[in-house]
Amino acid sequence: MPYHCVAYGCGKTAEDGVTLFKFPKDPEEFRKWEKQVQRTRALWVATPNSHLCSEHFGKEYFEPRPPTGL
User: CA-CA distances (angstroms) from residue 29 to 19, 36, 68?
Assistant: First the structure.
């Protein structure tokens, strides 16, 4: 079973052309992500296998990749 985005109303998988990010291992960061999702999914509880897709992060959170094939 492929991983899916846990954001309310999303549920996208890698097959939808998004990148999935696993919740952080750091407990403080994990809780920040969980609280953010709970803003729209009040009773939801994150697990170590919870993921969010790239559509829920601003472009400022991604580092540009150097060009390939040079």
Answer: 19, 11, 32
pLDDT of residue 63: 83
Residues found in the chain: 70
Q: pLDDT tens, 21-48?
A: 999 999 999 999 999 999 999 899 999 9
Which residue ranges make up each domain of the chain?
1-70
3-state SS string over the chain?
Answer: CCCCECCCCCCCCHHHCCCEEECCCCHHHHHHHHHHHHCCCCCCCCCCCCEEEHHHCCHHHCCCCCCCCC
Cα R_g (the chain), whole angstroms: 14
